[in-house]
Every structure is written in structure tokens, then in C-alpha cells.
Specification:
With 532 residues, the protein is an alpha+beta fold. 26% of the residues lie in helices and 29% in strands. The strands form seven sheets. An eight-stranded antiparallel sheet has the order 27-24-26-25-29-30-28-31. The protein is globular and about 85 Å long. The two termini are 25 Å apart. The relative contact order is 0.11. The model has no long low-confidence stretch (mean pLDDT 89). Bound molecules: guanosine-5'-triphosphate and magnesium ion. Guanosine-5'-triphosphate (GTP) binds next to helix 2. The site of guanosine-5'-triphosphate has 24 residues, from helix 2.
């Protein structure tokens, strides 16, 4: 049984490591930016869609993200909030990038689920939610865009309860709707929070209220809105469960806050909720045993690799979630996959847009380790023990395209760029045994566009991508002699992936059926375990 843990040393207990997840466009990146603002990490919030020289958000740092106003890649940021250290990961909502989001969910202790108040639970919310439930991740919910016309509050709550099969407890309650939305009542602290529409970066006016019959309410809330509010809140108290921290930590109840990220409204209450109710860093699933955050020895695992984060330095950064211990810069750790020692001499911490050398880090933190390709997704680092963190997902490529360099003389460069993206997990790359060029495989079509744009921008290589006549890929396993015979007889279907492992490219399901009939000793699998 997977154990939860609460009695941690203060330095670990004050850490909150969570991902922000939702359907595309619900406002994750905008919310992230406001977290940074209230955490004091930045002085002014940027926007997702901007013209000219206006300030952009910190987490959408790729050019394509900025051009299109969507997030393509997960990005981690650390900052302090009161006495807490928050490690936050903003994730992409678009299903085409969900592999990145799912991997992020293996590296965090909680998820903040954002819902668009006008749209409620959308398809991608539902899927992400299921992943959270599989991992028993505590979920805090933020109902965003309350400055616009939104759905009825009870309808939203019902929809979450029914579609996601989780108890919902309102942590705040909206007063007025759409243009008449004036703010929320903070149910956990009995306070009235009033939104300022004029100044989007301004902190809400906060009024302490002494219970619902306090005359102060009538002073701040117009009579018609107050009437509706009092009726609703009474109903809510009767019908909806009370907040229960244990249920939150077990993942069976989600507290729900209402607000407007773009208006900086409701953010502080949500942050306070994360700080007060947790969770603290949790044990990590690993083989052959789970890892507890307060173990004195350092362990960590790579859940993401990103090349060229800083286009000026052609670099590659592995994102490491520390599962246990007190890490100090310069430590020598064991790279479990290769069993080789590795000196971590220039780890970085992601502070808003800046990277800073991380002198130390604790269980729960996310640090970046610049490296030349030794570190891959799924790799575990320890102080010697051969532990492997388990459960990091890898998706089967569902769409395949041929890639060629626009300039044939640049094909070596293209190979290098493609290998980097393969190691990042941004695409699967296959080199067919016959012919030239490469076949790349992705989960969603938008990933092809990201790839083409990044190869051009980050490597200065225009590329041509076209439909491949193959439609899917399978990794080949089995006894060496049988595999060799299979490969020899099917050269036109064979390719190697970036690790040199053999892959069978197919046109039809029929091909796969034929192989299992003709080569019973050869196995074909749709995904490859990340950690070996
Ligand atoms: N009216 C209103 N618009 C908002 C609010 N919060 C965010 N937006 C807008 O909604 C759009 C999407 O916001 P993002 O923060 O990019 O959403 P996201 O969830 O990060 O989107 P992806 O990363 O692409 O999935 C942007 O145009 C924001 O300006 C809000 O509180 N009110
Ligand atoms: Mg985003």
C-alpha cells in the first residue's frame, strides 16, 4: 500500500509542489503569472497575447507559444509565498501536448485544476482529472473568468461532482454574475473580497465580515445581489459538504475557489489554500521500494528535458524532481541507468524568468541540470542505491511524417536536431534502415508544427515534412537470433530509434498481425519504457 506522510522536517514541510492543469485556454498561464506576482517573484504581470513591446508571460517562453498564445511545453517555476516555497509547473492544455502534461503529473504532489466559468468541465479537464485520480493526487479547483458571463454556480459544482466523481466544497462564493460580478465571499475566512475592474494588477479590497448577518455586508453589496447571495450561500451550506483537509489530501474532495486570473482576483485565497492545506512533499513510487522525502540521502528523477531554453546557449536542461534528502551543489550522484557517477556542479533553480545557480535544494524542489544528453526522461539519480522511479508515461506515436533538410548538405545537422528533440521526448525519431531521411512520430498534429518551427529557429534549418506512407511504429523485442532473422526479411519496414533500438514501421494493422503469426518469438510493443 502506498503510504502518505505528514511529519516532515520544517524545511521539507514548507514546500508545495504542484501543477496547473486544464482544458486549453482556461487561463493556466495567466494564473501562473499572477502567482509569480503575488509570490513577489516579478514586479509586473505579463500577458499571454500581446502586441508590440508589451510584457509577455514568463512560462510561455517559446516563440511559437508567444506567437499563438498557447502553451506548448510545461515550465517549472519556484518562488516563496509567506513562509512557504512553491514549486509550480504550468502545463499545456492542448491534447497534442498531453504527454508532457502527464509526465509533469508524476513529479508533483498536487494539481490546481482551472475551469472556465462559462464552460465548466471540458473534455481535456476530464482526461487530466482521471490521471490525477489514478495517482490519488489532491486537487484544488479554480473557477476562472468570473469577470465574464458565467454559468450558474450550483450548475458548475454539480457538473464537477458528477463528471469527475469528487466531492466539491466551495471555498469561496461568487457575488453577482457577468457584468454584475463584484467579488466573492471567502467561506473559509469569513471575508468579503471585492474586485477592482479598473486596475487588473491591484489587490482586491478585503473586508472582514462577522458572519452572514453582519451589516457590513449590506454596506458593500448592492441589495439585489445580496439577497441572491444570501439565499445561495444558505443553500450551499445545507447541500454541500464542509471542507475536510483529510479528504482533500486523499483526493476525494476538491475545494473550489472563484476568481478572475486576468483581474488578479481570487489568486491570493487560492495560494493561501495551497499553503495552509497542502499537501507537503509526498513519498515517490519507485522500484524496488518507495522513497520517502525525509530520507537523509538524496534521490531525484528526471520528468522533463528541454533543449535550447536559452537560445543564446545551445543548452539542454533536465528537470529533476527531488524525491528525498538535502541536495547541495557539487554533489556526486549515481546515474542509476548507467550506474555511472555524475557531478552536479551547476544545477539551476527557475525563478520566474531567471535561472539562478541552486546552491541547495530539498525534497519537493524541482531543479534544472544542464547536461549534454546523459540525462533522459525517467532517469533516477541517487547517492548509490539502485532505485528507479516508476510510472513515467510514454505515449505511442500515432502520426508519422518524413522529415528532410531543405538543404541536403545539412542532413547531419538535421540528425543532431532531431536527436535532441527525441531525447526531450518532443517526438519519436526513426532512421529507416533503407533510404535517407527520417521518420518522426508524434501524438498530436500540432507537435509537427512545433518541431518544424523549433528546428528552424533553434538550429537555423528549414525542413520539409511530408506524409509518411507508414502509419504506426512498434518496438521490436525477443531473442536476438529471431529478431535478426525478422529484421533481415523485412528491411524495408525496419528503422532505429534515437537509442539505436529496433523499430518496425507499419502501414496496416494487418502487418502487425502478420508478424505475430509468422514470427511468434518476436514481440512488438507500442511504447518503450523510458527508464531502462
Ligand atoms: N475575461 C477573462 N479572460 C481571461 C482570464 N484569465 C485568462 N484570460 C484570457 O484567456 C486566454 C487564455 O489564457 P491562458 O492563460 O493562455 O490559458 P492557458 O490555460 O494557459 O492556455 P493553454 O496553455 O494554451 O492551454 C487569454 O487570452 C487570457 O488573457 C480572466 O480571468 N478573464
Ligand atoms: Mg498556457
Amino acid at each position: 500500500m502506498f503510504e502518505k506522510q505528514t511529519n516532515l522536517p520544517p524545511e521539507i514541510a514548507r514546500r508545495r509542489t504542484f501543477a496547473i492543469i486544464s482544458h486549453p485556454d482556461a487561463g493556466k498561464t495567466t494564473l501562473t503569472e499572477k502567482f509569480l506576482l503575488y509570490g513577489g517573484a516579478i514586479q509586473m504581470a505579463g500577458q499571454v497575447r500581446v502586441k508590440g513591446e508589451a510584457r509577455r508571460t514568463r512560462s510561455d517562453f517559446m516563440k511559437m507559444e508567444q506567437d499563438r498564445g498557447i502553451s506548448v511545453s510545461a515550465s517549472a517555476m519556484s518562488f516563496d509565498f509567506q513562509t512557504y516555497r512553491f514549486n509550480l509547473v504550468d502545463t499545456p492544455g492542448h491534447a497534442d501536448f498531453s504527454e508532457d502534461t502527464y509526465r509533469t503529473l508524476t513529479a508533483v504532489d498536487a494539481a490546481v485544476m482551472v475551469i472556465d466559468g462559462a464552460k465548466g468541465v471540458e473534455s481535456q479537464t476530464q482526461k487530466l482529472f482521471e490521471v490525477c485520480r489514478m495517482r490519488d493526487l489532491p486537487i484544488l479547483t479554480f473557477c476562472n473568468k468570473m469577470d465574464r458571463e458565467s454559468r450558474d454556480t450550483f450548475d458548475i459544482i454539480d457538473e464537477i461532482q458528477e463528471n469527475l466523481a469528487i466531492d466539491v466544497t466551495p471555498a469561496s462564493w461568487p457575488i453577482g454574475r457577468g457584468r454584475d460580478f463584484i467579488g466573492t465571499y471567502d467561506i473559509l475566512r469569513d471575508r468579503l473580497e471585492l474586485m477592482d475592474r479598473a486596475d487588473r494588477n491591484k489587490l482586491a479590497e478585503s473586508v472582514s465580515i462577522n458572519g452572514l448577518d453582519d451589516p457590513l455586508l449590506a454596506k458593500h453589496v448592492p441589495t439585489d445581489l445580496l439577497e441572491v447571495f444570501l439565499e445561495e450561500i444558505e443553500m450551499a451550506r445545507e447541500l454541500l459538504p464542509k471542507f475536510d483537509q483529510q479528504a482533500l489530501l486523499e483526493g476525494t474532495m476538491t475545494p473550489l475557489w472563484f476568481g478572475s486570473a486576468i483581474n488578479s482576483f481570487g489568486i491570493q485565497e487560492l495560494m493561501q489554500g495551497i499553503a495552509d492545506f497542502g499537501p507537503q512533499p509526498q513519498p515517490q513510487r519507485a522500484l524496488p521500494r518507495q522513497i520517502f522525502p525525509d530520507e537523509t540521502k538524496v534521490t531525484g528523477f528526471v520528468f522533463k528535458v528541454q533543449a535550447n531554453m536559452d537560445p543564446k546557449h545551445r543548452d539542454r536542461v533536465a528537470f529533476l524532481r527531488l524525491a528525498s534528502g538535502h541536495f547541495k551543489r557539487g554533489m556526486k550522484l549515481t546515474h542509476v541507468r548507467t550506474k555511472k557517477p555524475m557531478s552536479v556542479s551547476n544545477p539551476v533553480m527557475f525563478l520566474a524568468a531567471d535561472r539562478e545557480l541552486a546552491e541547495e535544494a530539498f525534497a519537493g524542489d524541482i531543479i534544472g541540470i544542464p547536461n549534454h544528453g546523459q540525462l533522459r526522461i525517467g532517469d533516477t539519480l541517487t547517492e548509490g542505491e539502485l532505485l528507479r522511479v516508476s510510472g513515467i508515461p510514454s505515449f505511442a506515436p500515432e502520426l508519422l511524417q518524413n522529415v528532410r533538410a531543405g538543404d541536403p548538405l545539412k542532413s547531419k545537422h538535421l540528425e543532431k536536431a532531431l536527436m535532441q528533440f527525441a531525447e526531450e521526448g518532443a517526438a519519436k525519431v526513426f532512421k529507416p534502415m533503407i533510404g535517407s531521411g527520417y521518420v518522426v512520430g508524434v501524438v498530436g498534429a500540432l507537435q509537427f508544427e512545433v518541431l518544424a518551427s523549433r528546428i528552424e529557429l533553434e538550429y537555423g534549418l528549414p525542413v520539409r515534412m511530408e506524409q509518411s506512407h507508414f502509419t504506426s511504429a512498434r518496438w521490436v523485442g525477443g531473442v536476438q537470433t529471431k529478431v535478426d532473422a525478422f529484421v533481415d526479411a523485412n528491411k524495408q519496414h525496419m528503422a532505429k530509434d534515437h537509442d539505436g533500438d529496433i523499430v518496425y514501421l507499419t502501414r496496416l494493422q494487418w502487418d502487425i498481425d502478420r508478424v505475430s503469426r509468422d514470427y511468434p518469438d518476436v514481440s512488438l510493443t507500442a511504447t518503450k519504457e523510458m527508464a531502462v
